[in-house]
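Re: that chain you flagged

S.,

Sorry for the slow reply, it's been a week of failed gels. I finally had a moment to sit down with the sequence you sent. For the record, here it is as I used it:
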Amino acid sequence: MGTSLFERINQRYLEGFHNEPKQSLQPIWGYASVPLLSLEEACEPLLTIIPRLPCYIWIAKRNSTEPAEGLTQDESAAIHLYTMEWDASDNSNPDSLYSHLNNTLKMVDRTKLRPWFRYLKLFLTGLVKLPIAPRQTVWRGVRKDCSADYSPGTEVTWWAFSSYTTSLSVLESDIYLGNIGTRTLFSIETFNGRTVRAHSHFSNEDEILLLPGTFFEVKSRLNPAPDLHIIHLCQKRPPYDLLEPPFKAIPIAGLIGSPTPPVSVSEAFYSFDGNTLDLYSKHNGRTMGGSVHFRRGYVATGQTIVLNQSNTTWIEISNNFNIIESNVTVEAFIMLLKPRVDGNIFQFSSDFQMGLRNDILFMSFDPNVNVSGKSVISTDDWHHVAFVYDASKKLATMYIDGIADGSKSNITPRFSTNRNLSAPAMIGHGFYGAIDHLSISVTAKRNDIILWDASVAAYYPMDRLQPNDQGPNGLNGTSAGISSTKGMLNEAFTFNNSDAYFEAFGFTWLGMPRRSFSLAFWIRYEGSPGAFLTVANPSTCLLVLGIRSDDHKLVAYLPNATRSRSSVTVVGAVMPQVWVHVAFTWSLENRAILYSSGFIQGESPDAVVLSNYQGDNSSYPYTITLGTYSGSADCIGGGLYPSEHFMGTLDELYVFARELSHAEIKLRVGAMNS
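Prediction finished late last night. Pasting the C-alpha cells below so you have them in one place:
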C-alpha cells in the first residue's frame, strides 16, 4: 500500500460541496434505532461497497487504543476511519469511506443510506460527545468557479459531512488550492462544529467537521481577482431538524427539546460571582451610580448581584453588541426584592430595552413599539426570564420560567440600522432585586431551549464515572466508591458497597416553599434494599426515595410534609431487578406523585407543605445524594433504615425546577424503550 498524494493531503477540504443536490432532500432519519456496535460489526454491510475496508478498520482500531475526550475505542476509531484516505483500486479517484458516505448522503433516494445505519450510529455517537468548537470563521475551497450557485441572501443546505480548516494559509498552500488558477474560497461562520484532531488520521491539522443537514445563509459573494471567488456563508439553525440525533434520549426526547447550547455560543455571559465581568472578557461591566453587593445566587455554588437603587445604580458595558439585523436572546434568573418594580434587566440602547413595568415583563424597541407580558412576577422568589427577538420573523417573545408570557409580531426595530447603538449597553438600570447568570446570545432561541434553560436544574448522564452536570447550571457533583457499568443509555453508576455515594450541592430553589420540582432517572435494583436518593440540607430533610426491605416496594418518604409537621410516605410498586424508570413530582396543586415505568404508582394529597416550608434553616440550598447518605439531617423513616445500604445501578438523572406532567413522563419512558 504505497504512499500517494491523496494520503499526504486532507482531500476533504476540497471535496464534496460543489455537487450538492439542487432540491431539498428528506431529513436523515432511521439510523438512531439500530444498536451501538463495534466498528467491525458496524461496517459489515459496507464490505461489498468499499474495497479493502477490513484493512483500514484494523489500522483505525490500532490507532485508537487510547481514545481521548471520553470516547470509546470504537467511537474514536469510527472517526479515524472517516478521516483516512486511500487510493482507488483503478488508480483514478480516491475510494475512501468518506467519499462513499458523503455521496450517499446527497442522494434523493434515502433507502440507499440503510447499509450505512450501523456506521452512522457509531460515528455520530462519537462526534456528538466531542466538545463543540467555539463560534468562529473556518475555510474550505475548490478549484473551480462555484459563485453562480451562491447568490447573496439565499439559503443552502449541505447534506454531507463537511470539513474545514481554521487556517486560511493552509488552504492557500500549494498542496491545496495554491494562489493561481480558478478557485472558490468559502468563508464560513460556524457555531457547532466538532474538532476531530485528537481522533483523526491527520493529527497535525485542526480539522473542523460539520454534520449533515447544516443550513447556511449566503451573506456575500466577492471576486477580488479574475480567477478568485470568495463566498461568505453564515450557519443558521434550520426551521426543522434535518439530522436525527444518534440517541433519542439526548435530551428528554420531545419532552424538553434539545439541550441548551453550551455557554460558548453566547455573545456574553455574566455569572456575577463577586464581579461584573463577562466570561469571555469582550463585554465587561462596571458599576455606575450607587453601590451593589453580592450574595448567594440562584446557582448556589456562586453569587448573584443585588441592586437596591438607594441611588440610581446600573452596570455599564464597556463594549456594545453588534446586533444590527440580528436575532437576540437575553436570559437571566431574577429575584424581586420589593413589589411594583419598574426597571430594566438589560438595555442595548435607549430604544431597545427589556425589563419590568410594575412587576410585569416588557420589551421596548422604540417609544412607539412595546411588548407587555401578562403575569405579575412574585417577590422574594427566583424566576427565569427570557426575551427573544427573531429578526427573520419580526417576532418578539417574552418568557417566565420557560413559558411564553407575551409576544408581538411585525416588529421592525430601530436597531435594524446602525442608529442608537453607539452608547454603552446597561444591566439593571432602575431594577430593584437580584440578577444571576445573565446571558446575551445573537440567536433567537427556540421555545424548547428556553424551557430547558429555565427548568432543567441539573442533568447527570453518569457516563465514564464523570459526576458533571450537563444541564445549564453547572452543578457538578462529587463521588466515591462507585463503579461504572453499561447503563440504560451509555454508562451508569453502580453502587455496590456501603461507602458508595454521589452528591451534588447547590439546589437553591428546593429551599423555597411552594416551588414545584421533579426528579426523573433510571434504576436497576440488584436485591439489596435501602435509600438510594436523598434530598437534604444540613438541618432539613426534604425527600428520600428508596426500596423497603420488608416488601421490596418503591417508596417516597417526606418528613414534615403536612401542616401539622407529620411525615408522609408514598408507596409504589414492587421493584423488579431490571431497568425501571422512576420519577417523583411535587406541586402545590397536585401534591406528591410517585411514578415507575411511566405509570402513577402512588400519590398523597396530604403532602400539602414540604419541610422547606418550615422556617429559615430550610431555605439553605439542598444537596442531592445518591447511594449512602451521611449528612446531619434526620432522614430516617418510611420503612427505610440507615443500617440498610442500597445496591444497584442508577442512570440519567434529571432534576427539574417544575412539575413534569404524566404525559411528559410517559413520553420519556417511551422514547428510551423505542
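What I noticed first: DSSP finds nine helices and 38 strands in the chain.

Talk soon,
D.
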